[in-house]
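Suppose you are handed only these lines of text.
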Amino acid sequence: MGLCYFCEKNDRECYTGYYCNECKKLQRILKLYGDDVYKTNDTVFIRNSKQQQYKIDTMNIKAHIKVDELDEKQDKDGYNLRNKRP
Ligand SMILES: [Zn+2]
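From them, the structure of the protein bound to zinc ion can be written out as follows.
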């Protein structure tokens, strides 16, 4: 039947239509909520470089906290093969 003109991944809804079921649903949501959909898309799904760096920093801090907790546990329990750091 042909691929959807928007996502170019799924089959079109019908022979005379241009979009698949999922993209048609997005079109209906866009008609229903208007410009709020673009704002939501920009604030929820798209991250600028500053936001990406913030996420990377947060993940690094969490990784360090986890390592510190393992170190404290090993210091407290003493070293043996069961609490060996992965
Ligand atoms: Zn589609």
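What can we learn from it? The two ends are 52 Å apart (CA to CA). The pocket of zinc ion is lined by residues 4, 6-7, 10, 19-20, 22-23 (CB under 6 Å).
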